[in-house]
């Protein structure tokens, strides 16, 4: 009996020492907003996938979405967006963040984001995300204050008038532990 | 040999202590190995992210690299490969980018020429109201004909760039662009018919005749054509 207990203890120790937890993105809605004097445009994607790994009190999160998955309701506009953002050459948008695990319990999570898009990387410091826990699921919502110039995107124009440089991205995500 | 309960207790504690030390050593060894494995496993995943990422790294000399960040992720950070996207979604496609670039360039020319066409078109419509009359020669009629010719020339140039712009495979036309394209079936034939009917009407007027026969349709066809063209412009300019 003692030998069995000791063996179990021996096997369990490495697992306890690891202290790792993982999160997976269950569902998401990402919405970009672009403004032009003649009309505003929004593009929506539900195709993001994400994973978070927490180890020794520190967490790394990665969220990625295909550029072509954004739907503005107009196929011509979507193809122009894909061209302007070099979406065929750089097909994914990825967002990375590194947080202390304790931050995941806050009602407002201030995240330092590293966004890779259109072949460029931009960083956004202290982006606030509202956190609402619903059972086993954690709902996060916030807006990334992205600008086209951050990614060296030439603002597309319509009838000689360029769209505004601001391109805020609204993020709604549901995460749950693996 | 019989042992007292005290002695057997001491023995059990010693045995457990030895096992604990062994477990501790194994734990340290295990965690070191598993960290090493994670680092080795992450490397190819980062490399196979996509060629776009590598190109991105090359294209951003002035941007901070992740390694330089104070809070740079540890070796256990998730990679794009962990997310399970199909390879065709994550791999760069330079051929398609070239196709999109060409398409956008041609459609920008189409947009510019189409926008410029609006002005002679409007002027042609306005001058058309003074192009009638009973006289065989009329300067407004000449101006109307010249503006009509310029409009037709610009229109067909704009149409050429729209028709010749490469199509992107597996793309279904959605949204207001459908209205824009559908209206081309109205103003396209109208732009062919209007100058023909106009030339017939001009010829009849020049001979001192009343406009008769099919040439009488010149005005109504022109109005429908111009209206369809204006609506096609509005379909891309404004959101309904």
Description:
The complex is a heterodimer of chains A (178) and B (240). Chain A has a single domain, classed as Beta Barrel (Lipocalin), CATH 2.40.128. Chain A is α+β, with helices and mostly antiparallel strands. Mean pLDDT of chain A is 90; it is low at 8-17. An 8-stranded antiparallel β-barrel of chain A has the order 1-3-4-5-6-7-8-11. Chain A has a two-stranded antiparallel ribbon with strand order 9-10. Helices cover 15% and strands 52% of the residues of chain A. Chain A is built from 2 helices and 11 strands; from the N terminus they run H-E-E-E-E-H-E-E-E-E-E-E-E. The longest helix of chain A is centred in the N-terminal third of the chain and has 17 residues, at 2-18. With 240 residues, chain B is mainly alpha-helical. Chain B has a domain at 94-237. Helices cover 70% and strands 0% of the residues of chain B. Chain B contains 7 helices and no strands. Chain B has helices spanning 5-47, 51-58, 87-90, 94-128, 139-164, 176-206, 218-237. The interface between A and B is large, with 57 and 67 residues.
Q: Helix and strand layout, with pairings?
A:
The complex is a heterodimer of chains A (178) and B (240).
Chain A: H1 2-18, E1 20-35, E2 40-45, E3 49-55, E4 58-66, H2 75-84, E5 92-100, E6 108-117, E7 120-134, E8 137-144, E9 157-158, E10 161-162, E11 169-177
Antiparallel strand pairs in A: 1-2, 1-3, 1-11, 3-4, 4-5, 5-6, 6-7, 7-8, 8-11, 9-10
Chain B: H1 5-47, H2 51-58, H3 87-90, H4 94-128, H5 139-164, H6 176-206, H7 218-237
Helix pairs in contact in B: 4-5, 4-7, 5-6, 6-7
């Amino acid at each position: 009996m003692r030998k069995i207990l000791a063996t179990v203890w021996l096997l369990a120790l490495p697992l306890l020492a690891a202290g790792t937890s993982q999160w997976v993105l269950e569902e998401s809605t990402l919405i970009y907003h672009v403004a032009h004097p003649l009309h505003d445009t929004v593009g929506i994607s539900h195709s993001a996938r994400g994973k978070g790994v927490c180890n020794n009190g520190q967490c790394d999160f990665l969220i990625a979405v295909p550029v072509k998955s954004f739907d503005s309701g107009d196929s011509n506009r979507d193809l122009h967006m894909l061209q302007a953002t070099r979406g065929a050459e750089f097909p994914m948008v990825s967002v990375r963040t590194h947080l202390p695990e304790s931050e995941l319990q806050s009602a407002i999570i201030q995240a330092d984001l590293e966004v890779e898009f259109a072949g460029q990387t931009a960083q956004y410091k202290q982006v606030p995300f509202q956190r609402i826990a619903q059972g086993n699921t954690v709902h996060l919502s916030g807006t990334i204050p992205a600008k086209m110039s951050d990614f060296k995107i030439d603002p597309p124009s319509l009838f000689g008038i360029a769209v505004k440089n601001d391109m805020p991205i609204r993020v709604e995500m549901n995460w749950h532990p693996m | 040999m019989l042992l007292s309960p005290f002695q057997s207790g001491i023995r059990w504690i010693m045995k457990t202590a030895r096992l604990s030390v062994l477990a501790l050593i194994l734990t340290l060894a295990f965690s070191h190995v598993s960290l090493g494995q994670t680092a080795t496993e992450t490397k190819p995943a980062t490399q196979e992210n996509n060629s776009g990422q590598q190109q991105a790294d090359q294209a951003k000399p002035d941007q901070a690299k992740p390694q330089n960040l104070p809070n740079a992720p540890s070796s256990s950070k998730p990679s794009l490969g962990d997310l399970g996207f199909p390879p065709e979604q994550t791999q760069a496609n330079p051929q398609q980018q070239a196709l999109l670039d060409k398409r956008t360039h041609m459609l920008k020319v189409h947009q510019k020429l189409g926008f410029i066409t609006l002005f002679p078109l409007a002027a042609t419509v306005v001058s058309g109201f003074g192009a009638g009359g009973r006289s065989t020669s009329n300067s407004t009629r000449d101006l109307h004909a010249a503006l009509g010719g310029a409009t037709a020339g610009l229109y067909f140039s704009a149409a050429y760039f729209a028709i010749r712009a490469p199509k992107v495979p597996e793309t279904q036309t959605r949204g207001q662009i459908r209205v824009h394209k559908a209206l081309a079936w109205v103003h396209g034939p109208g732009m062919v018919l209007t100058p023909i009917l106009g030339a017939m009407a001009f010829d009849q007027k020049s001979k001192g005749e009343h406009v008769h026969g099919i040439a009488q349709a010149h005005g109504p066809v022109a109005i429908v054509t111009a209206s369809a063209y204006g609506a096609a412009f509005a379909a891309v300019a404004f959101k309904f």
